[in-house]
What does this fold into?
Amino acid sequence: MRIELVASVALCALTSMALTPIHHSAGGTVAGKVTYTGTPPKMKPIDMAKEPSCAKEHPTPVMNESVVTGPGNALGDVVVYISAGGPASAPPAAQATFDQKGCQYIPHVLALQAGQKLEIRNDDQTSHNIHPLSKVNPEWNKSQPPGAPPIEVAYDKPEFIPVKCNVHPWMHGYFAVLNTSHSAVTGDDGSFSLTGLPPGKYTVTAWQERFGTQSQEVTITGNETAKLDFVLKATEY
Amino acid sequence: MSRVARHIASIAALGILILISATGARAQTVHGLPDIGRGADTKPNTRVGRADAGKPEYTRYCAGCHGDRGDGMGENTQWIDPKPRDFTQATFKCRSTPSGSLPTDQDIINTMRRGIVNSNMPQWRPLTDQTQADILAYIKTFSPRWKTEKPGTPVEIPPETPVTTESILAGRAMYQKFECWKCHGVEGRGDGPSAASLTDSKDQPIHPYDFTTGTRFKCGTTNADLYRIFMTGLDGTPMASFADNIKGNQGWDLVHYLRTLQPIRTPEAALWKTWLAAHASELKPIGPPESGRN
It folds into this structure.
């Protein structure tokens, strides 16, 4: 048990050393919370009756995820990223993973960097077709039957790409292909943290699939944590 | 010979000529279909096109639907379904190349010549090879992708395997396994459980192909065309590429099965009919496993 723990801690340390560029280990942080004002649309339960193999994986119906909220008007699944002023960085060696499980996309919104390797998996007992509706990047559409190997792709240009499965029309997600490795997707509590920022003046942008984008400027001088909150205006439809 | 008699004679001669050519065409039937323009559609066009020469031709023949800016918003577009191709995206249904890649020049020439069945895109075979090449060169000016990307490498199609009952049965198993029936229906009628909700990449409703009424496909007529369609997928539509999951001769099994669904006399359909007459009860129905089928 103890050996295992030590080993896993060592492994974690090793991995983070391998994956994190040097300038990330120190530097400033931008952290805060994304909330909404107004009335967000009510999310409806998804009827998966047409796909029994997925329906049985959800004892309670899954809700539509286009607006994810938490207590205190917190807004989840918001991509917060450095949109200007960030240091140019090569795409991370770590691959981003997008999973299809229970006829849902996990995560619903995936932030990745242009050029970063993206692995798409099917953990369902049904065939999916992965159809990212890109406009700037080439649009493709591939089938992935149960047990098929992961699909490996990369996107060259920054773009927010809606992803859908034509077979299961309720499946909906996003690839947020960004020009930066400094990005985060908020959890249900709306919080985010962008770390390892060298001193400089940055534009930080928050993007939500229904409520659009909002940008703010922030200046980092050292190793401090700059607090930055976003309030997005909820639109009902 | 009087003038009238001469007239009658020449009309008769014309009739005989038409008859002869019709019989000739009949003799070349492929799977019971008159062999209209096969080969002529896909004959290599080796002409080098010039965009400036193509522009007036495009304006004359194409812009009414595809729009002056190539965005698929011509004056006829509002009346047309399916909608004309938007060339500014450089996303094309009929390609020999993998999903997401640009088609070859010949792919687009083939589409021009054969037109697209069940759509308003007619056959442009009367245009000369040079005009087709010029129009193609002009179409390529609508998207910057043609400057920065090369067409993909065409999907390899091995020589066709013999049509056998085993091949058809293997293809039928693929139709079940890859869940083709989810859109194309358990009998190929285009009425699967997902059919009603399908939309193309521009959110326009789109129908899956109905094999039971269709003879030609959007992207060709031959067995090799059919093979190519499911390997490359039809970009911009819900029809995905199966190239990652169907390999080599396996593809021919699926082709052979799909041919049994069509309302045309094919060697596959004949063989299948004979086999079914004695073995129909052995088949598990196609459809969802949970419903006790399969």
In short: Chain B touches chain A through 35 residues (CB under 8 Å).
